[in-house]
Amino acid sequence: MDNLTINGFGSSSGGTFQSVELNGKGTVNGDVDCKRLLCNGTGTVNGNVKADTVKISGHAKMNGGITASSVRIDGSAKVEGDVSADKLKISGYAGLSGHVKGDELMIRGKASIGKDCEVEHFSAEGYFTIGGLLNAEQIEIKVHGGESKVKEIGGRRISCTVHQSKLLSFLTPLISPPRLSAELIEGDHIELANTTAKIVRGNTVIIGENCDIGLIEYKEDLKQSKTAKIEESQKI
Question: What InterPro entries does the database record attribute to this sequence (predicted)?
Fold first, then answer.
């Protein structure tokens, strides 16, 4: 099986390869099926990518979708189609226009997901927006540096805390306070801080500091901070 490597300015047709490496300003026209895809330069793929591993250290533009076992974005990537990956880690910037599915999604940089995100384990310590539903068994969010937005959140265990950083505490007067915003948050065990939501629904609900909640519906237990603003709460 051949390798495809573009080091300078160049373009190639799609196809099946062992390895695809884009080091310069490279364009691949067509679908790509490979063991690994590396983008260290500025790469464009005008098609879908199917790979075992995808690693983006430079700047990538995918005008199709990605199906892979592992996707790591350390640079920046824009993907027009859906992303399906067992493990997806975003340390740089990712603009994903479609659906995201997989086992594990870690956000340590900045991510924008246009549609639904369905994974087993979701963890974020960066900034993110999700245009649809975030659905996961375990959801761990540490907000810092601005507002992260999700339309709806559903999961078994949902936790939103504030990321503690000396640098961030020094910069706090210069940036907007960290916050998670959602229309609906629904799960079995929910623990929130610095969160704005219209409706929170769960078995056990713990509302911490700096929360602004419209309605809380709980089955078993509700605990709330004195600094939290809750318009209405009811046991169901």
Answer: BacA/B (IPR007607)
